[in-house]
Specification:
The protein is built from 2 helices and 28 strands. The protein is mainly beta and 580 residues long. The protein has a 26-stranded antiparallel β-barrel. Strands 18-19 form a two-stranded antiparallel ribbon. 13% of the residues are buried.
Amino acid sequence: MRNIIFILMATVSVLWAQKIDISGRISLNALNTQYDETSQIKPDSVSDETYGKTTLIPGLSQNLNLALFARTSTLDISLLGDIRNNRWNVLSLSNQNTIDRLSLAVRFGNHEITLGDFYVSGSDLFMQSREMRGGRAVFKFNRIWSSRSFMEVSVLGGLAQKKLAIGDRAVGLYKQFETSGVYRRFLAGGDFRLGESGNFDVGLHYLFARDDSSSIKADANSDDALNAPLQNHNAGLDFNWLLWKKRLKLFGEGFFSKKDTISAGDARDYSLRGGFDLRYESFKLVAFYQRLGYNFYSAGYPFLLNDRNGFKIETAYRFPKYVVLAMDGEQYANNLIKDENIPTTRTRLANLNVTTFIRKGPEVTLGVGYRDDISNSVFDADNNETKTNKVSKKMEGRVSQDIGFNRYSLSAIYLDLDDKSKITGSDPLGTAQLIGSFNIYTRPTNNFFISGGLVYSRLKLTDGKDNVNYYLYESHRWDIIPLKLVFESNITATKNDAEGGGNEDLLSNYWQIAGQMSFEYFFVPGFSAKLIAGINQRQMSYTVDEALKILEEPDTDPTFFNGNESYNALIYGLEFNWMF
């Protein structure tokens, strides 16, 4: 990390010495969080160092936010950063986890080089929604063989996963520690794309990832709480072909992966997807087939739901000026490895939505959805049956409207899951869930706005558990003296009620309120100071006597109430903002 910071600072220094236009914002705040840390229920057998009333970090914390931009005749440069420090997660340049974000991007022509933190998004078969810390270079060249032809080359490398050892301090959670571990993971990859704008393009992709098994000491982990280190190769290609005056696009992609772990050895598999996308006037139709192999893996998107084979269709039609009708359906099956000891489940999904667009009227959306997961039966040596039999239904509605500088929205969704599956040693759980929300935004004058809303949710399980949650939020800004004095505030209130869960309900029954207000004074248009004050209070429904009685039970962990006690915190501090 020191090397990255040195490169960033050296680059900024060189650029500063040139004739460039510089703009941006630097914000530094210091907040003090104060509350009584004394616990009346902490067992004497538990150390003060590993037990807290709440996960709210007390004491002084600092936050530096950078958003700097520079421009020359040939370069666009940006430096973005978020650096935090507090008594629980002390800032350390040698610890990757204590720096939230630090990124330097340099753009010249059609090219871009990024150092530090960056976000990668693309295909879920290759790399999608991945935060990286390292470097990336993207080069794009035009007019290769015609006026519309192009070639794009990109390479990246760095950390795709920070190391977390069992017992490490959890980031942002006071006196909470990691209970499982992951190795530091290095990832490198490259893309090559060639094509003609508005006609076709073809891409080649490759990535390599490897866990650094030395990043965590062996004595700091147990075998069952730390995944074996892995090495991953992923390679593939994709194409897009536009036809019929760009109304029809044919697309496809395929990838092969090799995943190597110490415990399981090599696992090789492939995934592919292909179909068409038709857009004609007010009509849209997308259909594709996909196969995601059981052993397919990409370190660029490790959350991919693999082991499925089927098709999906999406369609929509807009009736002029009034209504949009949208539908989608999907069907797939799993168990691609044909394991006779695993049920093969067929999944079907369908959704229908209707949205109105009536001039001067509210925008209204009504929707229904259906899903089922049905499998064959598999019997073990003791003739115990295993099978999947789930049916889920969904109904939803949304209403929103803009009236001048005001906007309101109201939404509700109901989900019902009927589960009649058979699993040896456990009972299936059906659920019924209702979520409703109301939001309003109003700006009665140019120097005042207010927004807020309420969210209600209820989840009922067939085993008798029931949870109800209310969440209220509000924020507003008032320019008391335009361009000179600004007042801002925000508040959230939560109430949660749970029953049917035994002792676990004690951790879920509470109310909480958190609020903050500030006065910001601009000494000059480019420099301001902000005075901040707020509260954060939670009241658990259990009493001290009830908690002590629970802790006397032999099956109760002594740290059962860790982070889940009542507290009343006062927060105050200053913030300085420099804009130029």
